[in-house]
Every structure is written in C-alpha cells, then in structure tokens.
Amino acid sequence: MGEWSVVFRVHAIQRMYQRGIDASAVRQVIRRGEAIEEYPEDLPYPSKLMYCLVDNRPIHVVVAENPAGNEAIVITVYEPDATIWEADFKKRRR
Questions:
Q1: Are 16 and 77 in contact (CB under 8 A)?
Q2: What is the pTM of this model?
Q3: 65/81 Cα distance (integer angstroms)
Q4: Cα–Cα dist 5/81, whole Å
C-alpha cells in the first residue's frame, strides 16, 4: 500500500486492545503482509484480509482501501485460530 495513512476504526482499536496487538504490528502487516482474501464488493471501499508474521506471531488484518483519500482503513485485527485456518494461516480449513 505504499505511503498511505493508516486509519483505525473504533472496532479495530477495541480488538487490538483485547488481543494485545499494537499499532506498529498492524502497520507491519499492512506494509509488508500478504493479501490472502479479497472483498471487492465491500462498501464503502473494497477491502482485503492481510496476513503477516510479526515477531513470530501470525496476525490477520482486514483493511479497506480508500484511494481518493490515500487511506488504509483498519476494520479489524486478530490472531488467526489454528482450528479455522490451515497451518500457514493463509487458507481457511474446509
């Protein structure tokens, strides 16, 4: 996403606090993470699920992109559950 400004929704901030994930970790996921799911129909902006290992901890971030405002809007943040995700945390178990 380059040099976009990161905007945290209230829900994301609440989840980050509950889950012990700080803003610098979220920025790392956005900056160097991998998009593992795309949600082009989301409104008001398309979003995607990003994944990255941060200090050996897997983290998922749902982020919407507002190109007009040059913003990455953080919707939610969590550590993926191994019972729901494959071992690499990139694909949901079937």
A1: yes
A2: 0.92
A3: 25
A4: 29
